[in-house]
Input
Amino acid sequence: MSDKDKDLMEKLAGIELFQGLKPKSEAALLEFKQFRVCEAGKVFVNQGEYTSEFCIILEGLVSAYRSEPGGSGVKRLGTLKPGDWFGEMSAKSNQPAMATIQADTRCVFMAIDPPLFKVLDAPKSKFKTLIDDKYRERALSAHLRAAPLFKGIKEEKLIQLQDIAEFVSFDTGKVIAAEGNEADAIYLIRSGAVSATCKDKETGVQRISAYFKDNSSFGECALSTKDRMWKYTYTTLGGTDTVKIPRDKMESIFEEDQETLQLLSLTADLLLSDDEGEATSALSALSDAGNAGALSVDQLEIMVQRKSVKGGEALVIDLKKCTRCNACVESCVAVHEDRVPRLSKSGSRISSDMVLSSACYNCDVPECMSACNDGAIRRSSRGQIQFIWDNCTGCSACTLKCPYGVIRMTGTDSPEQSGRWRSLFQEIPVLGKLFNKAKLADVDAPEETEEEALVSLRTGRKVKGKAIKCDLCAGLPFEACVYNCPCGAIDRINPEALFAAKAASN
Amino acid sequence: MNTTYFKSIHALWALLIASGFVVWLVLGEYSMGRAAGSDRGYLLWSGWVALTLFFIVGAYSLRKYIHKLGWSPEFRYQADPKAVEQTEDAINNLNREIAEGRLINRSDMLSRAKLALSQAGTGRIFRPELDVEKIGEVEHFSVYLSPKEPLGRMAKWMHAHLFLGLGAAILVLVHGGGQMATPMGALLNGLSAVVILTGLFGIVIWATGPAKMTAAETDLSIEEAFVLSRHYERKVTAAFAELGDDDDLVEHFKAAADDSGDFAKAAEAGLSQLTAKDPADSKGHVLFQDIMALIGQRQRVNRSLQKLMRVRRTLNLWRAIHVPASVFLLGLLVFHVFSVWWY
Ligand code: SF4
Ligand code: SF4
Ligand code: SF4
Output
């Protein structure tokens, strides 16, 4: 360990978060930590901005502010001092910053990126316990308040609920609760997405009834005065963090306070009184957010199966307008040095005349990013998912995780812009075909560049390829595919908005 | 049907220009073309305007190709990603000031945003816009960046191409009078007719073709059929390579693999030849059946591809006439202008 590292470890030993780190976590911390400096008076991060770093204050003081929804102004949350931290939710689940952080004095932060955070935030570690406790202290009350079930209860009762909340994480495809079993808890989703399915009585097939995203909740039936059974099977659509509030614990803390318990049961009955039950509450929550309209079961099914619910904006092709001229793909090729398209016109049909093309959605819950352990995928402050060419080790983990299969591996070098003349000749009617065949065999195997050699050295793996995906034509004043479609057939649309528009027009 | 082609501001422009010249012709009581009674001023104006319209119409194709080749002037607008990030940070800070009530005037918000853009050097790619959200009685503002799209979307250019092209056609008629007496007149008017008629046909097929293509895509989309066809092509080629040097048998396979030939007959002939040669060759029979299955699948995919490609083939054919005829016409028009000037 170098002297600098020793000094740092001494400093960190005074911070509870880093006490009792396992040797593996300590080594990772020393290798991958970064430092940030922020001058007095400067804003380090703005509320709502996408950032993926977890920061620990090493020197200086910062103030945290939050503007409350509904326009009630900006609230000062307090001062953070050396040893305090912020950004845990951003590093954990790519959520936008919950507060604005402004330096009161010159500050030095230690920044931890998501892959390193994942190592430190290991199950049962002290680090994880402290992070969860802080979440309980800082955000849980707001999260509980957002759940329709708890809207009416008093502040002090909410604080009691905070104490019994458990933090449970699930991998993709895990069943949280199964239809027909006894409903024993309320779940709030911190990050990720969950589908609710139930068996069709006639066909016996599982049908999608609803889906739940960040800040929504399910499990009202656990408190119902009637049937306390799960009406649906709840399955995670990606890595999902939840807050579980067990019914028995809730009953025991409110044992003396039957009034609150009754209020909760009444609210639960009210929420469940609709025929659609919980599906309605999930969808109405989304409608409140301006996302969904009246979705039909089929549309919902497609969305959940295609996991569109986790997506941001998708490139949608209107097949009533598309002449299959390929100008969109060719434009994408034209704006990239490596002449590799980032989009394919084929994708899943969401209706008889609409296709979700295969190009990055810039997901709200980007699974590619959580799969990347080399810090090669990050979110820009505008929320776009960016791949960092130099950091990519070509491990393909992201390609396996992306639910839409829009990431492709390409060669490690950026070939010269060759073949332009060939593309020109290809355009000649009829004769153009003669110029169609690219001579792949002529391309020599690329040499390893200096950066790739460094990555190979660091990871012990040879960089065989790089992951690429739609970069929204980074730095250009247009999205080439949309901009150059002569028929106006392709556009970037939020799938939920699209479904809502279609539902409204039906 | 794609009806958006018929709703365009360019249609209005084209109508105004064309009807202007028709009215001028009628009011002036001139004759069309260089007949007796025609007016020199009218001829000159209608000629120049028609030529200008033709060049605008041609600019659409030019723009399409130069973009495809990566030579579009818009590519020089590309900003450094660092500058984009700097802009985003500045806009975030600005929004914070707005949220805190330190900036309340709309024009101040926009001018501050513009300043941030010019400082980061991204004013060429972004335009700041104000988003207003009304909560209760209170309006909440935030600034966001929208891309500038300097030359405008291609779909808009397409509308200009269509309608200004039609406008130009009317001008050609009033300018030349459709006279075919001289070789040049015949060539110009004949070519104009070809370009205009193919153009009209193009509008119909562009508007109705996509729906037809989509209706035909019952099992496979065109893209999927292409991919599958290439996949089977590779598999069949690899399987042929495995067959070794039994030329007779390869001939039968080739006959079966020919999409235009009778697959069942060739397959039967190949199988009976194989049986006659060595009835106990079970490995050969399995290989034969595998290859035949591959060929059969490839034929099925290719047939659906042929069906799916029907509209696209019509489009290609249409393009093979419309584009060269238009290029030739433009060249002739330039020649016509120079020759008129010269003489
Ligand atoms: S450019 Fe437009 S019309 Fe052409 S293939 Fe792409 S989406 Fe379809
Ligand atoms: S690459 Fe895939 S997972 Fe990642 S943001 Fe894009 S669509 Fe989502
Ligand atoms: S937005 Fe740009 S990078 Fe993305 S698919 Fe379209 S052209 Fe390609």
Remarks:
- The CA atoms of residues 80 and 154 of chain B lie 25 Å apart.
